[in-house]
Design a protein that fits this description.
The chain has 440 residues and is mostly beta strands. The protein has six helices and 26 strands. The protein has helices spanning 9-17, 66-69, 82-87, 131-139, 311-321, 417-421, and strands spanning 48-51, 54-61, 70-72, 78-80, 92-109, 113-130, 148-150, 154-171, 174-200, 207-219, 221-224, 233-236, 251-262, 267-281, 285-295, 304-305, 308-309, 325-327, 331-334, 337-346, 351-362, 365-378, 382-391, 394-405, 408-414, 428-439. The strands form four sheets. It has a 20-stranded antiparallel β-sheet that branches. The longest helix has 11 residues, at 311-321. It starts with 8 loop residues before the first helix and ends with a strand.
Length: 440
């Protein structure tokens, strides 16, 4: 019978609980105020616009859909299949997700310029699981004598407040925009040292373990019993939250963007880079594991009993491997800077087509993708479109809708239509809804 591993439940929980994958379809809705989130040069044609509070949510994992990894055991309980999980993994495997709660966004201006102000509370999560960690649990160390396994996960769970002030100016056929952002950290758990290796000695069959692994925590996060994996607890002290937390210890960030209209305004070329900045975390706690350890004659696979990891034995081993010491030092986390380059062509009054290329650098790794879009414009009241995108090596079909009834403007989009109906059969999901009041 195939082995099931409880250790990977951590990955599964993260993918289910975080509902911010990239909304590339939003880049083709230049006429709504929400597109200003991706390019500060994108502003609505109306001179006064107010966006009511709205939500953005999404997730992505690089391994496989949930239903491809989970099987039902003899007791009828859904468990992760370690062998299938391992076969779908690359050297590094990540789960990303989050949500943004936009409290307000307003734009005001004249013919050739606009100013904007907005606020949002954002949560993003990133977990990178090394394949060696799962391989060690499924196959044991005896299957790779003399080899070294890297078992340390990399993670960043981030919650912060963002207050932004933007300006756009029109210079002939060129629109240029910039946005200054003020970040205030609310809660964070992240790693800044991620080395933990396990090597099985070829001669004496002993485990040699070396760690240089550090977890930082700050804000409303309460990390308890990190030195005892059996009682490890991670809580968000929401009772301690106050409005002042939205504006404490602010850090500065920047968005930059531009667009140019060519061929009698039929072709629009645009580019932007957003979320340039970092967040400083004060009154923080650091949990550091550093050292070398040796265990005699251990086969990690012996911890697998009755198709599941023996929790007690796993806890005892992890407590010895990660012998954390606690300090209180401030630290900094960088936001994932994102860049976009797009082109959009008006084929006729009714139809337009375009494409966008996306790139992101985060925690020393690059992530990219692209999207193609076709839209139908039924007067100024209705805009319908389809978007085919390839992000993080995952292909999907999305759609957007924009309806304008007098001063009321409704928009909705997703980059993966099928995930709306079958979320457990898809690796990525995102959705955004907005309601605006747009005045001339």
């Amino acid at each position: 019978m195939k082995k099931k591993i409880l250790l990977s439940v951590y990955f599964c929980l993260i993918s289910l609980l975080t509902i911010n994958a990239q909304q590339l379809g939003l880049y083709f809705l230049d006429g709504v105020v929400q597109s200003n989130q991706l390019n500060p040069a994108f502003v609505p044609k109306q001179k006064v616009v107010y966006a009511l509070p709205g939500l953005i949510g999404g997730y992505h994992n690089s391994i496989a859909p949930y239903n491809d990894l989970v099987t039902t055991n003899a007791e009828g309980v859904n468990v992760l299949n370690g062998t299938i999980l391992l076969n779908n993994m690359s050297d590094n495997n990540y789960v990303r997700g989050g949500f943004d709660m936009h409290t307000f966004h307003t734009v005001y201006g004249k013919k050739t310029w606009r100013v904007s102000m907005s606020h949002a509370i954002k949560f993003d999560s990133y977990v990178n699981l090394p394949r060696d960690l799962i391989s060690l649990a499924v196959n044991g160390n005896a299957a790779a004598i003399g080899e070294t396994f890297e078992i340390a996960p990399d993670l960043q769970l981030n919650m912060y407040s963002e207050t932004a002030f933007g300006f756009m100016i029109k210079l002939g056929k060129i629109n240029a925009g910039a946005k200054v952002k003020l970040f205030s950290g609310i809660a964070n758990v992240s790693t800044d040292r991620t080395s933990a290796t396990v090597t099985t000695d070829e001669e004496y069959y002993q485990l040699d373990i070396a760690t240089d692994y550090r977890i930082n925590a700050a804000g409303l996060v309460d990390v308890q019993n990190l030195d005892n994996f059996g009682n490890f607890d991670l809580d968000f002290d929401t009772d301690e939250f106050s409005m002042s937390d939205l504006f404490n210890d602010m850090s500065i960030g920047l968005d930059l963007g531009a667009s140019v209209h060519l061929l009698d305004d039929k072709l629009t070329v645009a580019a932007s880079i957003i979320d340039i900045g970092k967040i400083k975390w004060k009154n923080a706690y650091n949990y550091h594991s550093e050292g070398d350890y040796t265990y005699e004659g251990v086969d990690v696979r012996d911890m697998v009993n009755d198709d599941e990891l023996s929790f007690d034995e796993t806890v005892d081993t992890l407590k010895q491997i990660f012998n954390f010491t606690e300090t209180s030092n401030d630290y900094t986390t960088w936001l994932p800077a994102k860049s976009y380059i797009s082109g959009n062509y008006k084929i006729s009054k009714l139809f337009s087509a375009g494409g966008v290329v996306y790139y992101e650098n985060f925690r020393g790794k690059g992530y990219g993708g692209f999207a193609l879009n076709g839209s139908m414009h039924v007067s100024q009241m209705l805009n319908l479109g389809l978007t085919w995108s390839s992000v993080y090596k995952t292909n999907s079909l999305g759609a957007h809708l924009m309806v304008k009834l007098g001063p009321v403007q409704l928009m909705a989009l997703t980059d993966n239509i099928m995930s709306m109906f079958k979320p457990y059969d898809n690796q990525n999901f995102n959705a955004q809804f907005g309601l605006n009041i747009a005045l001339k």
